[in-house]
Amino acid sequence: MNQTALQDLLVRIKADAAAAIEASESIDGLRAAESKLTKGPLAEALKSIKQFSADERGSAGKAINETKNAVKSKFKAAQDALRSANIEGERKRAATFDPTMPPTVSQQGQIHPVTAMQREVERIFTGLGFAVVGGPEMETEYFNFEALNIPEMHPARDAQDTFWLTNGWLLRTHTSPCQVRAMLRWGAPLRVIAPGRCFRYEAIDASHENTFHQLEGLLIDKDISVAHLIAFMRLLLREVFQRDVKVRLRPGFFPFVEPGFELDMSCAICEGAGCPTCKKSGWVEILPCGMVHPNVLRHGKIDPRKYTGFAFGLGLTRLAMMKYGVADIRIMNSGDLRGLVSPARLSGARVS
Ligand code: PHE
User: Fold this and answer.
1) How far is the CA of 239 from the centre of ligand 1 (A)?
2) Looking at residue 340, what is its pLDDT?
3) 260 CA closest ligand 1 atom index
4) Domain extent listing, the chain
5) Which residues line ligand 1 (CB under 6 A)?
6) What is the torsional sign of CA 340, 342, 348, 349?
């Protein structure tokens, strides 16, 4: 190697060092690049010293050393810069980190079985042209009872004892007050469902709760008959259970329907064999229903000579129990995580 070749080599080493520093994103990367240059071209340059004449060696050695030191200090500076950038980044992250925030890890869970059931029934009925409406949980005595043909001294009030508020209002015992509210608001013809929470003064057991969900349904139009009612109820249960469900119709008394029915379905917990949920009868009351009483239509300012209709009060909570196989109604308000992680895990669940 002659002087010029050595000069070229040293210039290239500096250029390579600059390029390697530019390209490295980590301290390890810088270290690797530096050691590659030192062991490769720099070592080669040092070795070449032997080839120079005695009086050339001094300046050649000096040039090589200079380059070596320059490369070394450039790499060191680059490492220092990266290190302080990392520290700064850490500090910034630490400053904005809020240890009181909930963790971002995704938690497996899902909506409450009753909500799932409600959405499903809403989907079915909106597909049939029904509107979803609401109503107050704190209701007046008028809409909860009187407008529904249950006057003050009527014994039907006993069956729906509830929580009374100091202002004379009450916690609604069913979603039926939404019927007359909807009639007054929209008139006939009418297709509405009204899901919501209801309350009763109950002795609590596997199938009774003081707080539960119902879903009211109301269809009013010309020439509506019991045949329409049965057809709609069958369709509802078939859609929910995705199979033909065995049902039976018994006469049922509710002052706001005439005729009134109790629609039972065979118990999905015990498949009809008899269990605590169905009180060992194999049947579960799921859908009280009937033809809207003319007095109720009148309270809703609808002419009973022109219009007829049917109404039903679906026990949403009970339906969710049937669908997901929950044996004890108390689970539904308990916040039991088995139900929120996967309704399937509620199957057969009881309060221990
Ligand atoms: N509201 C009644 C109850 O909760 C159920 C019902 C609704 C019955 C509509 C007939 C028609 O017991």
Assistant:
1) 21
2) 65
3) 10
4) 3-95, 113-346
5) 174, 176, 254, 257, 260, 288-290, 311-313
6) negative
What lies within 8 Å, CB to CB, of 257 at 6+ separation is 289, 290, 291, 292, 293, 310, 311
pLDDT at site 121: 95
The Cα–Cα gap between 130 and 233 comes to 14
- Ligand 1 pocket test, pick from 160, 162, 176 with the greatest ligand atom count within 8 Å of Cβ, gives 176
Positions of E strands within the chain: 131-132, 138-139, 170-171, 190-199, 211-221, 247-251, 257-266, 283-292, 308-315
Q: Which residues contact 283 (CB under 8 A, 6 or more apart)?
A: 248, 264, 265, 266, 267, 272
pLDDT at 351: 61
Q: Name the 3-class secondary structure at 265.
A: strand
Burial class (CB in 10 A: 0-12, 13-18, 19+), 345: middle
Mutate to test the pocket of ligand 1, among 254, 289, 318 (most ligand atoms within 8 A of CB): 254
What's the pLDDT score for residue 75?
85
Query: What is the dotted CATH code of the domain comprising 113-346?
Result: 3.30.930.10
Nearest to 78 by CA among 161, 152, 19, 162: 19
Collect all residues with Cβ–Cβ distance below 8 Å to 311 and sequence separation of at least 6. 176, 179, 216, 217, 218, 219, 256, 257, 289, 290, 291, 292
Q: What is the CA(312)–ligand 1 centre distance, in A?
A: 6
Intervals of the chain under pLDDT 70: 105-109, 339-352
**Can you tell me which residue has the tokens 């004449």?**
53
Rounded to an integer, what distance in angstroms lies between the CA atom of residue 327 and that of residue 308? 38
Structure tokens that stand for 98 in this block:
């809020």
Reduced to 3 states (helix: H, G, I; strand: E, B; else coil), residue 89 is helix
Task: Return the residue whose CA atom lies nearest to atom 5 of ligand 1.
Answer: 313
CB atoms within 10 A of CB 326: 27
Q: How confident is the model at residue 139, as a pLDDT?
A: 97
Burial of 120 (0-12, 13-18, 19+ CB in 10 A): middle
Ligand 1 centroid vs 166 CA: distance in angstroms?
26
